[in-house]
Amino acid sequence: MDEKQYLNDLAQKPFATRMFGYLKFAGPGYMQSAMTLGGGSIAACVIMGSMLGYELLWVQPLAIFFGVCVLGAVGKQACVTGEQPYQAFWNRLHPGMAIAWGGAALIATVLWHIPQYGLTANGAIVLAEGAGLNLDSTAGRWGIGVCCLAAASFVLYLYSTGAKGLKIYENMVKFLVWGIVLAFAVAAISTDIQWGALFRGITGIDFFHRCMAEGGFPKEVIAPVVGGIAAAVGINMVFLYPYSLLNKGWGKEHKELAYFDLVSGMMLPFLIATGFMTIAVANTIGPQDGSLGTGVRDMREIIPVLTQTLPNWLALIVIGFGMFAVGFSTIITHMLASRFIGCELFAKWIDADGKLVFPIIGLKVNSKLFFSFLPAVGIVGVKIEFPFLAAVTASVLAAPLMPVAVIGFIILMNMKSYMGDDTPTGLKRLFWNTALILSVVVLSFGAYNALKGKYEGWKAQQAAPAVEAPVQEDGGEAAANDDKQAMNTPMEPDAHFGDEYTSYTTIESFMGSDFTFRLYGDSARWGTEELRAVAETTFTQLNALENRISTWVPDSYASKVNSEGASHPVAVDPDTFAMLQTTKRIHAETDGVFDVTVGPLVQLWRDVKKNSNSQPTLS
User: Fold this and answer.
1) CATH number of the domain at 3-341+375-460, out of 1.20.1740, 3.40.50, 1.10.10, 1.10.506?
2) CB-based contacts of 549, cutoff 8 Å, min separation 6
């Protein structure tokens, strides 16, 4: 019995029987799951968990609901019509919409590819560390990148070899997706899940109370909430999904299977993985007592706390594999998405033999191969430890066009000449249109805030005058030798700025060093007292930082590492962990010349100096 006949017969069975029968056909949904987890969702979870603990657990379920609605509508249209969506946009809507959608999807895919190599390399380095190896070097990172590209190329090759190869490709993606779920589940469960906070977080009760107490939506969490929602479904995902269905030959008989595939392959793993990741971060480096924590982006920061409940090697393997699987699974789906997008977008320049013909020079290359490897430029991400700029740029580029693409699918869904007898009517029509319109509203909100944030950042950067500290002939800052009486007193505006700016300078001592602060503000908005308040806020943060990382403070995290680290793992805050990571990196880059463990030797030098009349020397 062929697949279509099997599905037709299965359609007559009870619901539970149909769902069980669909399991062996599931596949494209997992590809979407791999892409959305690597598209920024996990990064958003780390930020949200470190800032508000369990409070934002409601974000990802809301985001994936709209994502499944959008992809469900796209999949329905592809299965019912059998028409390639890009051609439907071109012929039935407007060529400009097709080009904008395809162009933004291709560029975003290439840019989003860069942080995936960085994430994959970081995961591989952590895995290697669990095995006692050090790959955190230039050669090590490039080696990881080359191996990942070679492995991804082979997996992508399997996709093109026929039904068996396609099955292997899909099983590989399934393995990686459920591996991600398992890794983050171990991380969360080992840190003791707080079930009451979990319920309040998913329902939004705690966050609602925070909004009530603060008189509105806290501005600090707008960015992570918008990022979490936007990352659930990307503009390249709405391109990849219908083409992966058409490539498998799915038609009208597969419509219900496509819905099941999205729920079982995308929604379920996504909810479990993102939920466990947020919980793990909240339990380890999240804030206490409902306070607002510091948003961090690197999931490696939870490892020191995780080692309190897991052996060090197991903690490294859990987090390392989770990071690696997220990055690598996204790499292979990005390459496939780029192939589909590029071949559609540049179909005009592809000849009958499938060769892409470059205008003017007449060079011919295999179009599928060329567009599959186009994102491979992202391999440079292995050298960028936190390559967020590319991901942010891609998100800002794609954000305003994602609602436009969904509007296009809304129009097509209601077009009788396109959908035929499968055009939704009655309650089905109400459901699809309501869900998709709400998705457009949510996506537009996200796009607006993303663009607004980038614009305000650019505007502030342009408005802020560049200040260069005067340098003495000996190379030191002149301000470092200013009289202490200048502290907390306003200084005269520089001639460079004129009367339109209010200026303020102060000197404070932290961590054995003098910090000179010069602040400038538009006189129409900023007075001396306002600038003083900004400076004092900075002093408060620096004082708190000193209390966490200074070895001169007996109960600081750094002091605890010195006194207790030799006997058992010590839980530290993100700042201390980041500082130790930086010292480790510099130690490797300088071949051991810089060594943060030199403290005991320095103390010995001080003791000798104190008890000796002669000046000690080190040789």
Assistant:
1) 1.20.1740
2) 556, 557, 558, 575, 576, 579
